[in-house]
Amino acid sequence: MRRRSLLLAAVPAGLVTLAACGDDKSESSKASASPSPSASTPPPKIVEGPLPAITAGTKFGEKPTVAKGPGEPSKNLAVKTVIPGSGRTIAENDFIQANYLGQIWSTAKVFDNSYDRNRPLVIQLAQGSIIDGWRYAIAGKKVGSRIELAVPPELGYGKSGNPQAGIKGTDTLVFVIDLMDSFNSKSSAQGKPVPQTDAALPKVGTNTDGKAPEITVPKSAPPKKLVSTYVLQGDGDEIKANQTVLCQFKAVVWDGGKTFQQTYGSGRLSQFSLEQMQQAVKGLAEGLTGKKVGSRVLVVVPPELGYGDNPPSGGAVKKGSTLVFSVDILAAM
User: How would you write 165-232 as a 3-class SS string?
Assistant: First the structure.
């Protein structure tokens, strides 16, 4: 079972629901915007230690073994860059992809790790989405870095702790984090272009500058069956039906080619479970399943796998509309 012990919010920040339709400047888009850090709360003091030794699994990407905390922990947030990376600098409100191990300072008891699940965490570095210890420790670090941190209770789970994970309200937590990648609203898929030779299908732009690709819908009748094909093919893992994806997307209706929703230019990304998407736009979930991370995918959804005769009110989607999606799959977990 996938654990979400680092999450504080019930729903990942930046989630976009395709049930709320409008153009890219709609109020529904604004309501889904990522939260901003609190301006009234000053950042905590960050110190270099003390921190326990990493005794095994010392390379980036390896599951680490971490010793028990040496004596009393600092009351401040302790952060050390164990392995410096050379990738882009991570900023507040970015999404990160990371492997991690977490344990309790006083006992060295491991309460969670992603290495054994072989599914890195994908989460937004935003207030209310992740514990503050992570938020302050990771901002400013570079992709490719391994960092170690000791998080005092007030920057972790507070006085209530996390009973499900065996964490008391007085526990200082130790984490080793491998920062694998980061994404923001200017990210695009970086796969290789695939020839678009079928004149009966929409043509999708192949730009990778974080701007919305142009979608040109043919004037012919739409296909009657679901279509899912690569525009840019990445080299990541194939997405499974039970995973959550992080993406940029643009969605238009076949008749007229009008955009009814997109993330491009909105300052946010979309993160959704394919299992939940089965209940909203089944064809989109089916069209992304099996596709590779790092790809741009064209998905044409016939009415019976989209909104059918029950479209959202007030938008470009009508009864019986065929939907066209361009989806940049940035990450999956």
Answer: HCECCCCCEEEEEEEEEEECCCCCCCCEECCCCCCCCCEECCCCCCCCCCEECCCCCCCCCCEEEEEE
Does pTM top 0.90 for this prediction?
no
The pair of structure tokens assigned to 38 is 């609190």
Are the beta carbons of 223 and 302 closer than 8 angstroms? Answer: yes
pLDDT tens digits, one per residue of 200-221:
999 999 999 999 999 999 999 9
**Cα–Cα distance, 106 to 194 (Å, whole number):** 54
Residue 300: count of CB within 10 angstroms of its CB = 24
- Kind of pairing between the strands at 95-104 and 110-113: antiparallel
At 33, list the tokens.
């915007």
Quick check: 264 and 246 in contact, CB under 8 A? no
Question: Average pLDDT in the 22-45 region?
Answer: 45
Closest CA to 271 of 7, 61, 1: 7
- Contacts of residue 4, Cβ cutoff 8 Å, sequence gap at least 6: none
